[in-house]
Each structure stands twice: as C-alpha cells, then as structure tokens.
Amino acid sequence: MNVGNIAQTANAIRSNVSKVIVGKEEIVDQLIIAILASGHVLLEDVPGTGKTLLAKAVAKSISGEFKRIQFTPDLLPSDLTGIHFYNQKLGEFEFRPGPLFANIVLADEINRATPRTQSSLLECMEERQVSIDGTTHELGRPFLVIATQNPVEQQGTFPLPEAQLDRFLFKLKMGYPTTDEGIAIMKRFMADSPLEQLVPVVTTAQIEEAKQQYTSVQVSDDLLGYMLAIVEATRKHPDAALGASPRSSQALLRACQAKAAIQGRDHVLPDDIKAMAVPVLAHRVALRSLQRLRPEAAENVIQSILSTIPVPADEPLISRA
After folding, report:
1. Residue 162: its pLDDT value, please?
2. Which portions of this protein are annotated as coiled-coil regions (predicted)?
3. Can you list the positions of beta strands (E) in 160-207?
C-alpha cells in the first residue's frame, strides 16, 4: 500500500463517519492519524458534544471491535484488564478478558478513576499488551484508546499525571456545533440514529497495512531540525515548568508523516508540523502555577513558539540515511 492507497483508505473512513457526525472533519482526520501512528487521543469537552458517537462511528468504519468503559472511583485495574477465574466444570483456571481487549476503547471520564486504575492503562497504551498474574496478553490490532474528561467538573476527579498525559498522541476538543450544523444534526437524528445503518468501509487488516506503510513518508533534515527546535523551545519557555519529553519529538514526527500520508503526499511539509504541534505538544507541557489557571495557556505557549522559530524554506528532500 502506497500513500495514494492510504489516502483512499482515509477518505473512505472520513466519508463514512460523515454520515453520522456533522462537521468535525479536522477531529475525524486527527483520529485517523492517531490510528495510523499507533497513538491515543484525549478528548476534553463537556458532555453531549458527540465524543461517544464519534468513537463508535470510527470503530464501525474500520470493522473494529468497540468497548466503552465508564471510569468511576471504585473501578479496579482488573475491571479493565480481565481476571483469571476458576472454572468448576473444567477444573482449571481460565482467563476472562476485560474491555481493553478491543480495537477502539472509549475510556469515558478517565479522570474519575483513582491513580492506581489510571496507571493500569500505561502498559497497554505504550506496548499494546497487558500483564496479568505473570502472563502477558497481546491486545487487538489496531488498538486505540479514546479517553474523555470534562474540563468543567473537578469535584471527585483525579488529574492525569504527566506520565499518563505523555502516552496520548493528541489532546483534542470537540467544540459546540455551529447553528447550521446544529440544525443538520437535529434533522439527521429526527427519525433514527444513522449509526445503526453504518457499515464498515475498510478492514482492520487494511489499517494494519497502512500503519506499516505511512512511515515511508519522507522528512527532510531541515524539517526534522524544525520539529526538534519546537520541542526544545518548550523546555526553555518562561511559562513552562516542564517542557515536552523526548517522546514528544517522536510523536510529532509520526503525526506529521501520517497527516501527509492521508493527504496522499509522500513528504512532510512545514504546514503539517504547524498543524500538528498544538494537539501533540500542548498537553505535554507542564505550566507554572499561575499559568495553569488559564484554559488556553498551554496552546498559547506552543503558538508563541511557532511564531518565533523560523520555518525552513521548501527544498529538495535530504535523505535521512
């Protein structure tokens, strides 16, 4: 599968999801990018903006298994990963897999679970496996965690630690629909939910093939330096107590390659980097105490960095070998 085929796959998913989700084309593209780049997504928005519906629509479009987990303070790690139980009929222990054994997992209101339960996601998000009673179990392919949290309600929540946030490729916001989109949503759901009629348009095997091929997208040495300069600038910014980690530069590179691939290009452009910088890096920057009170402060830090670092001129690609 070349980048042209990857673009066709992305277009098929995008078109299918649009039968259910009105607007939000950029969010849909970012979810496709996350799937290709083996990343995960944190959706931060108020209830009722379509987060669950979007996750289900994407899962159906790629013929993937979908599981939803409602995170609560009493949720245990074993409720996510599964347990070994004694089967009296067989006279032996059996493994009962938890909801993490799916292709797309919606971790609803993830910040309502205790840190212990939140930390149980670290291994599965990074290594696509879970270890239970000394046994390692592989998770599905593809595997995407879409976690949600409400930015308004803070009572009874446990903020995600930096190590957890660093596992998410993107932090996104759905946002409210426009007036025209709101009318279109009401008309679309007036009779029945279009999600029920949605059918798969690609297979998980096609997704896995695309994941193997998107890394062939070329990135010039100048653009690699541009990415690294942006990441390093987060560590020196006066409003940042802790800058983006080395993992961030790898995440930014993968996101930019995947973005170029779904647009049918075999090379990354500076505009790809600019588009991916905020959703990839903003949640990875820990701000100083006074800045944390401003909702858009982290995004503003990344935007200010983008405005000060010179953009490399378009030149012929330089081999990374």
Report:
1. 79
2. none
3. 170-172
Q: Are 90 and 129 in contact (CB under 8 A)?
A: no
**Interatomic CA distance for residues 277 and 230, integer angstroms:** 8
Look up tokens 């081999």; give the residue: 319
Q: What would the pLDDT profile of 158-177 be if each residue is shown by its tens digit? A: 888 777 888 899 999 888 88
Burial of residue 140 (number of CB atoms within 10 Å: 0-12, 13-18, 19+): middle
| Cα separation values, 93 from 134, 135, 211, Å | 14, 13, 36
Same domain for 170 and 300, yes or no, is no
Decide if 195 contacts 60 (C-beta within 8 A). yes
Mean pLDDT on 42-56: 85
Instruction: Tell me if 54 sits within 8 A of 173, measured CB to CB.
Output: no
**pLDDT reported for residue 91:** 79
Q: Are residues 229 and 278 in the same domain?
A: yes
Half-sphere exposure (CA, 13 Å, Cβ side) for 255?
30
pTM tops 0.90: no
Structural domains counted in the chain: 2
What are 18-40's pLDDT values in tens digits? 988 888 889 999 999 999 999 99
Domain that holds residue 73: 21-185
Rg value, the chain, Cα? 20
Average pLDDT estimate for 170-186: 88
CA angle, corner 20, sides to 177 and 52, nearest 5? 75
Query: Is residue 202 included in any domain, yes or no?
Result: no
Contact present, 263 and 32 (Cβ < 8 Å): no
- The β-bridge relationship of strands 104-108 and 129-132 is unpaired
Using the 3D structure, point to which of 185, 208, 225 is the last residue of a domain.
185
